[in-house]
Amino acid sequence: MWSAIALGFGLAMDAAAVSAARGLAGHASDLVVLPLLFGGFQAGMAALGWLVGRWAGSYIAAWDHWVAFGLLVAIGGKMLVDAWRDGRKAGDGSPPPPATFALYLGLAVATSIDAAAAGLTLPLVPVAPWIALALIGGITAACSASGYLVGRFVGRRFGARLAMLGGLVLIGIGVQILVRSV
Prior knowledge:
By secondary structure, the chain is mainly alpha-helical. The protein has one domain. The protein has helices at about 1-25, 30-90, 100-120, 130-160, 160-180.
């Protein structure tokens, strides 16, 4: 059971970091949407990796880091541009626009690609696969909500310019994924 919990926390860390970055300039709806999507996608991708791993494991491993890198750099770059634009018009007091479904979906996919690879190892975890999948999804959702709240707190304390930091964090996660895998 402990190995499944450890796997859940290990997979949840990038989702928690992305949630914190969104919390820097996000909207209250992100507190509900991000944990649900991130938890669901982490569990779903782990299940997919587990089911498909027998015949497609080498293909997933060959490309997952490139896909995650591309998505995270693109989304992080967009956050940087949006934060720069918002910083230029900070005097008008208007909140940043809400996230789009495409952004939410891109973040969920980018943070859960590693779960597909981890799904290949589920038969090695000494607990029923459905319990491991539930733990992965639940832990990711809880860590995402916590990360969002921390990011929101920091964003209120130090201003909307910290959204730039959030974009840099996403780009950094993308680069880290690429460096670890190449």
